[in-house]
Specification:
The chain is an all-alpha fold. The protein is built from 8 helices and no strands.
């Protein structure tokens, strides 16, 4: 059986991620390499193509259920929790983004908004690679941080750090967890290659090129 409702649900769920990353890079337009602007189109195209393929796959109903909590999403994010998390997210994500902005770019640095996206892609790529070996542990690690019911400063900090550093990979692996081993690995490898390609084209656009 096939569920078009699930297909469209997954596809539309991916769009804020892609639109957000594309917008952040676009806002750093004046720092792009003038002769590499086509890299932006390829960057968005690759992301959209994988999102479309993932959504098509997600529509197939399988006997195996994905690894998700029964109360997934319930009271997960809140304004209060976000402000609590800033004690962790500002210094850690800030340091990581500034570090990414120092990647080779002649005598200049990479725009901070593009560096933010590069940093997210790099860490998600590491987790995507690890997911090829032990996907269940990676998903469990992701769920334990993002869907932690505690609302302490520490738990909120880890929640929002997880959303930045490996939510992209985590959500993809949750969808793939319903499928047989071979399909999981093929899609996992494709996902990793797309991340590497998107990272490379983005670096071509905003780095030394």
């Amino acid at each position: 059986m096939y569920s078009f409702r699930r297909t469209w649900g997954v596809f539309f769920k991916t769009q804020p991620w892609i639109a957000g990353a594309a917008l952040l890079v676009l806002l750093s337009y004046f720092s792009w390499n003038v002769n590499k602007k086509e890299a932006y189109i390829i960057f968005v195209f690759l992301a959209e193509m994988f999102a479309f393929l993932l959504a098509l796959l997600a529509g197939f109903k399988t006997k195996k259920k994905s690894i998700i909590p029964t109360d997934r999403g319930a009271n997960m994010l809140s304004i209060e929790g976000f402000f609590k998390s800033l004690l962790f997210t500002i210094p850690i994500i800030g340091f990581w983004t500034i570090s990414m902005s120092q990647l080779p770019r002649g005598d200049d640095t990479i725009h901070i908004l593009s560096a933010f996206v590069l940093g997210m892609l790099m860490i998600n790529g590491v987790f995507a690679f690890a997911s090829l070996v032990f996907p269940s542990y990676i998903v469990s690690f992701y769920l334990a941080n993002v869907y932690d019911k505690k609302q302490t400063i520490t738990s909120e900090g880890f929640r929002y750090l997880a959303l930045y550093f490996y939510a992209l990979n985590g959500e993809v692996q949750i969808i793939l967890s319903r499928f047989p081993f071979l399909i999981q690995r093929i899609m996992g490898v494709l996902f990793l290659l797309v991340i590497i390609a998107c990272y490379s084209f983005l670096l071509l656009l905003v780095g030394n090129g």
